[in-house]
User: Fold these one by one.
Assistant:
Number 1:
Amino acid sequence: MSPAAVKPNYHQTPLEAIRDHARVDDEGHVYALPTEEGGEEVHIGQYSAGDKDQALQYFVRKFDDLYNRALLLAARVATHADSAAHLRFSRQQLVKELENGTWLGDVEDLRGLLTEVGTGIAAIAAEEDKQQQAAVEAKIAKREEIVAAAEALAVSDSESTHWKSAQEQLNELFEQWKTEQRTPPRLTKAQEDPLWKRFRDARSSFERSRKAFFVRRDKEAAEIKRAKDELIAEAEKLSGSTEYGPTTKAYHRLMDQWKALGRGPRKTEDSQWKRFRAAQDVFFSARDAANAKIDAEYAENLKKKEEILGKLHELMPFTKPAAVRDRYFKLLDEWDAAGKVPRADVKRMEKAIAEVQDAFREAEGTVRSPRESARSDRQSDMISQLEDTIAGLEAELAEAQSSGDDKRRREAEDALAARRSWLQMLTSS
């Protein structure tokens, strides 16, 4: 038989092409005639609801229906309308139906069409395998990326790691891992197990490092707390001291030690600092009050020295130093007798009196003989050195008095008395 398709996507077998290859008996039984000489007829079926042509047409339409379903499948294969698995299943159903049925039509032609369809499905399957392999490789690469990120967190420096943030990152990586597991394509056990082992080991290593860090930090924090308790005890012990100089230095040393220890446990750090600061405040408030009292006492001395300085300025310029010599040295004696001034005014007053003394020595040098001038210059150098020494001793004495250091005060007073005596001898000669 030679079927004729009336449309590219539709198959219809002409009845004329069937009449020479089939017969219908009087009871409506339809037989396919043998294709070879000596062959046997094949019983197709029975159709008793019409004449012989209608019986033939009935079985031809059944074949054409099968053929057209095969054409529809071919169109689905050509457009890749479905997966290879679904297309292959549809083809298998058509092949099974064709082989198990008895037809009036060009069976060989339909077999050829189904063979072409099978070839197309195989091509689709090959492309799907290629895409599947690429998807699997991408999936493995994504898992590898997750594992690498987890391993990087596991080996990070524990001292510089922000553990809360790192823990959140690791949890997010675990969620990504579970999402990748749920979404296709699925990895095989052989592909997934090595990656999972690395990821699990990284999480375990991270957790060990995190726990070790906090155990170590808690131990260090406890040590800091203990050390700061000792500093607080020492600070509180010193808070009532009246030896202001040494105790001030001691408090500075305690503060340096406190800062060097770093922050202690969060729960106790603030309360410890309040106790430590309170002890210092007690001491420094008492020291400031004592210094203020001393400065108030020295304020009268400053007033006297300001008046003496004014009288010395009245003698200037020293154009005739011999004429004012007695008055000049008498005022210097009054200056020494006036006593110490407040610390804030020491340098200013020392500078002012030094300028007056320099001016007087210079004036004396211009009216003496060269020999006398040389001797006067040497004497002036000695006087200048003694005055510098005295100024330093006066500052040291003031500090010792303000700090309450009796030993330093006595030593400074003795040294100062000796230098002033030498200075008196030099200036009165």
Number 2:
Amino acid sequence: MAMIEDGPNRPAESGGRPIRPAFLPSDLDPTVFDEGFLRQLERLLLLMRSPVRGGLKGGRRSVKRGQSVEFADFRDYALGDDLRQLDWNVLARLEKLFVKLFVEEEDVTITILLDGSASMATGRPDKLQFAKRAAAALGYIGLASEDRVAVSVLGGRTARRRIALRGSGRIFRLLTELSSIQPADGPTDLVAAARHAAAQLSGRGVVILLSDLLDPAADRVIRELASTRSELIVLHVLSPDELDPPLEGDLRLVDSETAEGIDVTADLATIDAYKGRLAAWKEGFAQLAARRQATYVDLSTEVPLNELIFAELRRRRVVA
């Protein structure tokens, strides 16, 4: 995708407005990520359970005290404090030295972990395509909030981390990065890839995992990521065919990653048993996430992007 840039962080401007490209990457529908939708996303913020410590000044309240315009509290003066922060009005009234404290606004890193395993390329609608669009929307919310946004792709046994972006003008770079992601060729060890991703994290922030969790040890994936200092959000993406299989008769099911097959007879009893185990499987993830103070959201790829962001994730207190 061609794009004119003026400096490292913003698109060139004409008449005070950013120059936006005539099209977006081919597999991220331009009718979805149009100007109006981006403006709606700018009004949202990814929620965090607790204050943060960041590196650069951004749009979030920190546990540190700083020099923003928003007053927070007083404390007693201590030798070495900046005399410019003394409250002279209090000194005149009480003849005591107090230092004014202000809320420090700082940024965090939002790390989006996209499951690139072969199983994500299955389903109608395609799970990987759905995950990339959700990642783009959530990433833009972070960029518009002046947070850093980094994307890592989980494939094989590793997490391939892309460059961290900052500033709403980098949305097109984010879309380009996401558009270039292809499913892994061969099996993926999701636990090993998640462990590798966790090792790349630094400081506290938000980690968003988009995955179908089709790994025998998927509960360990949540444990690995929840053990970091970051707040974890798990978006469990499944296709309609996985939620309600349109199967009947004698069939051979083939694993999309290992090519191993299993013979089944799909009748009403089999489908009912499958749905029962599926519900218990998802409930197990939800309970594990709750114990680890993470957020778990189960999703169908049939959910429209607008409904996902502005209804479902708001209801789950992921964004506000």
Number 3:
Amino acid sequence: MGYSPEIANVVDQNKKIHPHKFTLWVGIASIMMMFAGLTSAFLVKREQPGWTNFQVPVAFWYSTTVILISSLTMQLSLKSFRERSMIKYKKLIGVTACLGLVFMLLQFVGFRHLWINGMVLKGSGAAQFLYIIAGLHALHVLGGVIALLTLFVRSGNARIKSYNAVPVEVVSTYWHFVDILWIYLFIFFLWVQ
């Protein structure tokens, strides 16, 4: 039994990935390759003379907990948006953005601790790689926080009553990605210390 041309066209359109989601996945793939290259280079370079080992600061443990909680609040905000519970969505997206900022603050505290304890940029390849890897991750988290704040502001605008879930889904996917990326980096730092 065949579909009419109109129904077949709708079925074909539902199978296609949204262009924003496709672009996001291409971006995620390239970011993953960049971090895989940097962590691989870290492993190769650590055998060189003058390499300094480091202890993972306690603040990194706290920041890991914060970013895991933010992943949960992001998922709950997406669920609230899909259910059109906009007040709950706005609160949860705001909490997620705040948790992102707390994560960045804790990262700053952790790296300040490393700096004070002698993990400086000059002379140690470990410090250079560590600051580059974490700095790039922080930039990606900052981008996510900006996207979250944009969604938060848009949710409070009475003139915008769009229930298109694509922007929220894209930001949610990106936020989960930077969360998973930090978990990977955190485990990597624990392993190489």
Number 4:
Amino acid sequence: MVKNKVLALLLLLVFLFLPLQNLQAAGDNRKVYVIKLEGEVEAGLYYFLQRAFTEAAENGASAIIMELNTPGGLVSPAKDIRDLIYDSQVPVYAYVRHNALSAGAFLALSCRKLYMAPGSTIGAAEIQDLSGEAVDEKIISAWEAEMRTAAENQGKDPEVAAAMVRKEITIEGLDDDKQLLTLTTAEAEEIGFVDGVFATRAELLSALDLAGAAVQTVEVSPAERLARFVAKPVGATLLLTIGLTAMVIEIFITGFGAAGVISILAFALYFGGSMIAGFAGKEEVILFILGIILLLIEAFIPNFGVVGVSGIVSIIAAIILSASTAEAGIRIILSSLFFTTAVVAVAFRYLKRSRVWSQIILQYAETKDRGYVAPADYSHLLGKTGQTLTPLRPIGAAEIDGLRIDVVSEGSFIEKAQTVQVVKVEGSRVIVRPQ
């Protein structure tokens, strides 16, 4: 009897714990993809996130945690990333670890939920052009609407999001009409603008009921890192300045050397990064190579400059077309030309003190010490007379002013022992006519 009761109790325990074990096993199979969104928001970031989202979906991830620490960036790629988040098959949650400013605030509000770590900030989403100046009211209004919509989709007060865009919109107790709204974690929690505050990622996963899930952190690949570097105006300008400077130096130095290699590498990195970021295609690369070929033709084949000008136009067009926008491309090429001019001027100043300068400019004078004898100067014989020592047909010899000199008849043949007068002197060439 006792044995039967014990057996029944054991069976009951097995049936009770079996479902829990199955749940634990299911939890262990779940995956969470963590994507660190750091630095500026630009087109290169979009392609990195696109790859990460695709990878998460293909591997059956339960959630994507986007950890934000960004000062903002460009509006156009921010909207593209917003669409990427909306279209994601895997739910995306924003976790502001430090800062989500400007376009970063927009992306944080575009996710399914917004979470923050203590000491973080979100806001300051004023829109500006590339020079830092305020833009047209129409553009500001459209951006404000985007921020409001993103906040509404998360169930948050759209007026708070609008105050991040416009100074004149104020939130009582948080800002005034002289500054954009930027919320600390405590302020965001106080007004209900954040869905939770968690000091660590583990706490956040526990709140999302994903404590037992495997965490996969997506790293930026070297190619994507290059694309993000080139997508920034500073990075693109730096690579182009190096490429153009090295190309100019290579043109002036005999033979093909280190400057040529550096130039090729710099241009390859620029166009390679632009292609990865989606700015450039094969057409821009071909246009650039065509420009280089035309410049080489200009250097070695005499023409009226049309080929050289066409080459310069091709190179400039290729660089502008491979930028994120035409305006950005023009700014990049102008900045690159300015810095190239400055660097080349400084480089040639210091090259004069080095051995490399001897490959560019002839350093040695043709002096008597080096065995060089200059041609005689006969200009003092102009107008003087003498006598031919040989027939001039039309070249021969004559004695003029006590000197035996090779002379040339002005036109007709002159017989030997005839009186002649010097009528023209061209360097060492003395021209005479019969007296």
